[in-house]
Amino acid sequence: MLAAAGAVNAAEAARRSPRSGPVALGGTGGTLLVTLDPRSPTPQRLGVFRVPGEPVPITAELDLLHLDPLAVAEGAWTDFTAALNAAGAARHLLPVVGAIAAIDAGELTGLPGIAEFLLLREIREAATSGRWQRVIVDLSGTDHFTLLRAPTVLAAATDRLWPRPLRMAESAEKPALAPLAAAIDAIHRDCMDLAELLTDPSITAAHLVVSGGERGTQTAPDQLAITEVMGLPLRSTLVNAGPGGLPTEAVSEAVRATLGRDAGSSISIRDVPRQETEPARLSQLRRLGITWPAPNGRPRGSAAARVDDVGGDGLEAEYELRWQQSLVDPQELALGRSGDDLLVTVSGFRQPVRLPSVLRRCRVSGADWDGRQLVVRFAPDPAVWPQRPTARAGTVETPPEPDRSRPSPDSEENDHR
Length: 417
Known about the structure:
Layout: H1 2-16, E1 31-35, H2 42-46, E2 56-59, E3 62-66, H3 69-86, H4 88-93, H5 95-101, H6 114-127, E4 134-138, H7 144-161, H8 164-173, H9 178-199, E5 206-211, H10 213-230, E6 234-240, H11 249-259, E7 268-272, H12 282-287, E8 306-311, E9 318-324, E10 334-338, E11 341-346, E12 349-354, E13 362-369, E14 373-380
Helix pairs in contact: 3-5, 3-6, 6-7, 7-9, 8-9, 10-11
């Protein structure tokens, strides 16, 4: 309901000022509202039929696009496995190809990140099509954090399944594998592009809706901590009283305490009071007065992480990776490594954080939290850290002896004076 209300007001603002909006994609303007919940009442409230996969006009400035996650995943996966089957020789050269191609589209829900990745890719295609100036995605009815984490998880999975250096080497030796390697590279690039898009504060703004009451008071700090470790550019938090009129004051106070100095400045906080009747028409949605703040260009959480060189040289060097991070229970913080990623577990949610290049040959040596910033310390890993060759103690380096098989320029044989 709140996403639809915000989309209606965004479309109204676009009608009054056609050039308004955070992102100008070069199209005709207007707003697109995307829903993912198969049971979402949004189409009925907006007075249109549900047409999965096709934008439906609501007003001159507002369209509704309903995406069926299973249908999107099955359609895209069918096309991908058809390409794998077309590379017949590759099935024998790389057994995993046959295993992947044998997975039925209906079994995608068991593969980590694939269905969610395909859904996000569909949303990105709509957002970059040039038809709309602003795209609002309603994630209600979904496991929203798992959905937004999917590109990072899938990128790591493809690297473990068939690492890129190995892909390049094997496709060079066996040309039949080249189409498959290109397809995997394309998926990996899409994953990285989506991950960057979701954390880019210049074009993306995240908005968190939490429920009122005791449940909201308990869960709001955890959800805010997860947005930070994911690096999501949070711009507003709405505390919804819901149809039951749950109290919102305590939840708002918990949100302010967690956000600290960001509360009310870079991140707005608003209580949504109980509505006497459920909004069922455009005019009723408009009267809710919901607005979504535009992107402000300020990275947040792990997306704003910085690396400090704290001293030392070679294997004695020390580095620190730090970012602003709230922790509901510091005892629940857990750190690990997986390839080039730092695995950070906050409030029971594990997020891969891609390490800067200087830290990928280091190991985690410790971590601290000062109540607002998470500081992870790194030390060079001797097994992979590049070392300068040095002369062994007790030896004297001497220049190589001249090649006496050839006459010297000053020898008698070459003396033409």
